[in-house]
Amino acid sequence: MCMKDSFVKLCLVIPGRKNPSKNLDVFLTPLIDELKELYEEGIEVYDAYRKENFTMKAILLWIVSDFPAYAMLSGWRTYGHLACPHCMGDTEAFQLHAGRKTSWFDCHRRFLPRSHPFRRDKNGFRTNKSIPTSFGPPVELDGWKIYEKVCDLPSVYEGVTYDPKKKRPEFGKSHDWVKRSIFWELEYWPMLLIRHNLDVMHIEKNVFENLFQTIMDTKKTKDNIKARLDLKEICNGPSLHTWEGDNNKHKKPKASYTLTKDQVNEVCKWLKTVKFPDGYASNIGSCVNVKQCTFYSFKSHDGHVFMQRLLPIILSGMLPKQIFEPIIELCTFFRVICSKVLHVEDLEKLGKSIVVTICKLEKIFPLGFFDSMEHLVIHLTSEALLGGPVQFR
């Protein structure tokens, strides 16, 4: 296709499991050569308004990609307990014993003000654990300090492909750098305040999927038997602890944050008939099976509309107030952060309030609910302060 005139801009199709992963820099080498030329020498172009030629220079401001592509382009591994590219090596994420997955539960109280009562709470989060006032948020490194850490790392475009077996002993403990990205060859790259943007739509969809599937108590819920076993081991929530039934099988009690079968059936019927203005959203009713009360094939924009508009309507009057309010706060956060116009003072307040909202959700949902996507939400306001509204990035 890319050899035909109609698809001349389609330079590379990256297949799923056969994608080049960390070796993507090999394909980016021609692009970097042209970016160097644009920055250092410039190219002669024609100004149609003034009817004259001039030398145009340009820089690459930033990159926007989903989280897996973030790892390919930046060189920072985006899974495991060091997945966050903002916190880097200073995180408190841990692996769940029963769930066997990384949890970011109780990693956000350190972002709260030092006098906040949640810091002293020993029952609402981890059992018998408080956060000292001296323990604050991790220090974010600027471009020059990051470059000092990656300048000695190997690159993958100098004839040597990335070998995951050849890792340094500190890898996975103090850092998660797997390579020196080809973008560090650009002279201005360390000067930029944002190099790789977090994809708000990708984060929003993942947060919505976790939240919606858990509340609707579907097969994809984060509130399974393994999550309850981890909850019993780490937290103080006797009302959610499992018990052994017949044949020594664990059973879990009904949680207050999940809807009943009748309520789920009402939601399915409503979604099947809901209408939107032309071009506002896709046919969400086609993603709902009323007979089986199941949901499937939600696209990113469907999650966007659901999170910001439909979820507050659906859950109104169905959940207790102490559960409904933090969910609405989370929906409001995404609606504000995706606005066309942002004000600095509003973003500063939003950055403080979203940490409190995540902590409220930690007092409600099980440990398996909080993966890296729920954690990345607290970093979206800082990127908006530096880069502006989401759609203009």
Report on this structure.
- The protein contains 11 helices and 10 strands.
- The chain has a two-stranded antiparallel ribbon.
- It is mainly alpha-helical and 393 residues long.
- The chain folds into 2 domains: 21-61 and 142-193, no CATH class; 200-392, no CATH class.
- It has helices at 25-40, 67-74, 143-150, 200-215, 225-234, 261-273, 300-315, 321-337, 344-362, 372-376, 380-387, and strands at residues 43-47, 52-56, 63-65, 94-95, 102-103, 196-198, 243-244, 250-251, 288-289, 294-295.
Spell out the key features of this protein.
393 residues, globular, mainly alpha, single chain, 2 domains, two-stranded parallel sheet
* Rounded mean pLDDT score: 89
Main beta sheet strand tally, sense and closure: 2 strands, antiparallel
Q: Tell me the Rg in angstroms.
A: 24 Å
Strand order within the widest beta sheet? 1-2
Write the element-wise H/E pattern from the N-terminal end onward: HEEEHEEHEHHEEHEEHHHHH
Number of domains: 2
Strand content: 5-15%
Structural class: mainly alpha
Shape: globular
The helix fraction, in percent, is 25-40%
What is the number of helical segments per DSSP (H or I, 4+ residues)? 11
